UniProtKB/TrEMBL annotation:
Signal peptide stretch: none
The protein's name: ATP-binding cassette domain-containing protein
Database matches in Pfam families: ABC_tran (PF00005)
Domain ABC transporter: 2-198
InterPro entries linked: AAA+_ATPase, ABC_transporter-like_ATP-bd, P-loop_NTPase
Recorded GO MF terms: ATP binding; ATP hydrolysis activity
Domain of life where this protein originates: Bacteria
Record keywords, A-Z: ATP-binding, Nucleotide-binding
Lineage: Bacteria, Pseudomonadati, Pseudomonadota, Alphaproteobacteria, Rhodobacterales
Amino acid sequence: MLKVSNLTRLMIGPVSFDVGAGECVAITGPSGTGKSVLLRAIVDLDPNDGQVQAGGVIRADVPAPDWRKTVAMLPAESGWWLDHVAPHFQAPDRIRGQLSLVGLPETAMEWEVARLSTGEKHRLALLRCLEGGPKVLLLDEPTAALDHDTTLQIEALLKQQLGKGTAILIVTHDAAQAKRLAHRILRLEDGQLQQVAA
Ligand SMILES: Nc1ncnc2c1ncn2[C@@H]1O[C@H](COP(=O)(O)OP(=O)(O)OP(=O)(O)O)[C@@H](O)[C@H]1O
């Protein structure tokens, strides 16, 4: 589903790897090694070299906004540019019914952004990422701000996505989470990816 070939950006690469439909690959590695830089390069937020394809779409052939409909990224810090939650979604009424999947009440759609906790922002941003039905999800420490039970709830949602055939590349420092979710674990160190576990 996701095919990365000879990608280079700053201290990374060239790296090549695939993530299949319905497959979850975890990226681990020391702090500052370039895990977020790698995700940002794949989603084409920063200049980089190499070829990236997703679901048969070649990144170089489509405008960036179309690419990001196919490959959606949840950054470590999500962006919020309006005062309230609802207008950040394309179809807030439809998403309202999904808030319980991330442990939030339906009223959260009406909340002011200024009151959101870090974990609430993360959970809402994940629903926002999923709204467009991306084929590939890039997740940068999606549960870093969450308690254990909510983390498991988010993981259940991610497993549902995997069941639908979404490919997931997740950066996590949580070895137990990588074990629970990932089919393969890659470690990024010195600019290169090494498979560390099946
Ligand atoms: N635009 C940029 N220009 C130059 N250096 C950058 C840029 N963005 C990030 N870096 C540097 O690249 C390195 C890797 O950053 P990155 O955020 O990818 O680390 P990480 O592996 O995700 O770390 P952590 O686990 O702490 O989140 C850091 O030293 C960072 O300062």
